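Allow me, if you will, to draw on your knowledge of protein folds for a short while. I have a record of one protein: its chain in single-letter code and its fold written as discrete structure tokens. I remain grateful for any guidance, and I place the record below:
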Amino acid sequence: MDWPHDPDGEEGSEGMRKYGQAIIAKKINEDEDFPLSRDEFVEAHGDEPIRIDYQTVVPLRDIFENVEQEEFDAFVPFHKAVGRAMRESGYWFYEGVDQFVSGKKST
């Protein structure tokens, strides 16, 4: 896929290789972006590259296919929903993650 910018460049990762949720979190301004609409966020950023691991880059919209909540009032619930969606989609590459999430749903 032709990305709108280099996922490892200044615009994608601030000059250093960063992954997954860290890249998504940088797209949010906690003081100005809430309440945040999931659909508007995906409309604005859906084609942007998100590096999942050292080999895998996906568009943000692929991650948000499993974000069920439509609107968020604050950053923490948004961040938890994105993390849950990444785990459900197989985009969570951290070893041992199962020992921390073992079927519990965070809210």
